């Protein structure tokens, strides 16, 4: 085999391996959401393998881009929850209910965001934090640590 063919074969194998590591895919179940400034197109996610409490084939919530949800860890977006713009979910974080994560927000470790909570701006939520109800967290807020329950705040 020529050197060029070997390089091409290696790239194909590397790409296939990356595909095998993915835990979800974006499916064509889409909708558009318009906020004060932009129109966002969301894609529903579907699990490609079992992890955490998620089973292969299970439908999840909605993301605007694949980079919104890490393929590592057990993090997941459930139900009608939405993650968009540059927001990022990683670790074992869980986003449920009708929660919305946007802007440059980062939700990681074992954080749980649920109900109608809205996390936006440059907020960072981590640790074992639980945020629920109608809580709104934005700006440069950082919430971390163990078992903080935040409900109905602005």
Q: What does this entry look like structurally?
A:
With 154 residues, the chain is mainly beta. The protein is globular and about 40 Å long. It has a seven-stranded mixed beta sheet with strand order 1-2-3-5-8-11-14, with no helix packed on it. Strands 4-7-10-13-16 form a five-stranded parallel beta sheet, with no helix packed on it. The model is unreliable at 4-9 and 11-17 (pLDDT under 50). It has one helix at residues 3-21; strands at residues 24-34, 39-47, 59-63, 76-77, 82-83, 88-89, 94-95, 100-101, 106-107, 112-113, 118-119, 124-125, 130-132, 136-137, 142-143, 149-151. It has a single domain (23-151), classed as UDP N-Acetylglucosamine Acyltransferase, domain 1 (3 Solenoid). The protein contains one helix and 16 strands.
Features of the shown structure:
mainly beta, UDP N-Acetylglucosamine Acyltransferase, domain 1, 7-stranded mixed sheet, 1 helix, 16 strands
Give a quick precis of the structure:
The chain has 154 residues and is mostly beta strands.
Write the layout of secondary structure elements.
Blueprint: H1 3-21, E1 24-34, E2 39-47, E3 59-63, E4 76-77, E5 82-83, E6 88-89, E7 94-95, E8 100-101, E9 106-107, E10 112-113, E11 118-119, E12 124-125, E13 130-132, E14 136-137, E15 142-143, E16 149-151
Highest CATH level, the class:
Mainly Beta
Mean pLDDT: 87
* Oligomer category: single chain
CATH topology label: UDP N-Acetylglucosamine Acyltransferase, domain 1
Shape: globular
CA-based gyration radius: 17 Å
Sequence of secondary-structure elements: HEEEEEEEEEEEEEEEE
Amino-to-carboxy terminus distance: 64 Å
- The total domain count is 1
CATH architecture assignment name: 3 Solenoid
